[in-house]
Amino acid sequence: MTDTMRQGRHVAVNGVRLHYVRFGRGQAPLVLLPGITSPAATWEFVAERLAAFCDVYVMDIRGRGLSQGGAELGYRLDDYTADIEGFIRAVGLEAPAVLGHSMGARIAVRLAARYPSRIGKLILADPPVSGPGRRPYPIPLSFYLDSLDAVGRGLGYDEMKVGLPWSDEQLEQRMEWLPTCDRTAIIESHKSFHEEDIHRDLPDIATTTLLLYAEKGGTVSDEDADEITGALRDCQKERIDGAGHMIPWDRLEAFVSSVQHFLAD
């Protein structure tokens, strides 16, 4: 992969400036939606690998990275979904595959349910299954806010390194880009995990779907996976053993292989 294959740009959608990074060679498009505190830059090492078989558009979700943020914006599923649908139209993508991780997977669910003609295949990677009447999301809000505050003061690297198999480069990216996550966006998105129910959207999704979930993530259990695949019309599931919630950080080869086989099938 060469640097000339990377493209970083901005686009105005719904009155919001969105930033995205593109990797690819003019192949079939894939829109990648990261999680609650994951700017696009932290997913570039994954996008570089995926670009071997598709054009990858990694989004800075509003309130993250170089995209517009601020307390005046909304951070609910409908807000995020309208952004991504508008982005797909603005860039001129024809039914791209959509891969969402964590919060990004929840956005992808709503996108597929509300705008079925806009997307092709759907990949849901470890989506939070919390919602009204369901068990809470396992990572408390305090973890995100404490991490944001610590990194903003130049601290946190040693704490992040303990017990994580991530490379120094990945940890350095985390240190560099975490402060670009808007505090209000984090708070409102975490609240959405518990107040908005993605399960209601599942029966409305007709596109072919792959559910990837982490054995050690604590987010999607085997029972949750069965419920999701049972609610979708055309869905296969795959557990990535040995991986935590940030699946590609722990099992990059397995993650890329699963995505490639699904898109090629």
Give descriptors for this structure.
265 residues, alpha/beta, Rossmann fold, eight-stranded mixed β-sheet, 18% strand
List the helices and strands and how they pair.
Layout: E1 6-13, E2 16-23, E3 29-33, H1 44-50, E4 55-60, H2 77-91, E5 97-101, H3 103-114, E6 122-125, H4 141-152, H5 157-161, H6 168-177, H7 183-195, E7 209-214, H8 222-231, E8 235-240, H9 247-250, H10 252-264
Parallel strand pairs: 3-4, 3-5, 5-6, 6-7, 7-8
Antiparallel strand pairs: 1-2, 2-4
Hey, roughly how much beta strand do the residues contain? 15-25%
Mind telling me the C-alpha Rg?
17 Å
Number of helices: 10
Quaternary state of the chains: single chain
Helix content: 25-40%
The end-to-end distance, rounded to whole angstroms, is 24 Å
Query: What's the SSE pattern?
Result: EEEHEHEHEHHHHEHEHH
Low-confidence stretches are none
Q: Compute the number of strand runs.
A: 8
CATH evolutionary superfamily: Alpha/Beta hydrolase fold, catalytic domain
* Major beta sheet summary: 8 strands, mixed
Task: Tell me, rounded to a whole number, the average pLDDT.
Answer: 94
CATH architectural grouping:
3-Layer(aba) Sandwich
What name is given to the CATH topology? Rossmann fold
CATH class: Alpha Beta
Q: Provide the domain count.
A: 1
Q: What is the strand arrangement across the widest sheet?
A: 1-2-4-3-5-6-7-8
Shape: globular
Given the helix and strand composition, which structural class is it?
Answer: alpha/beta
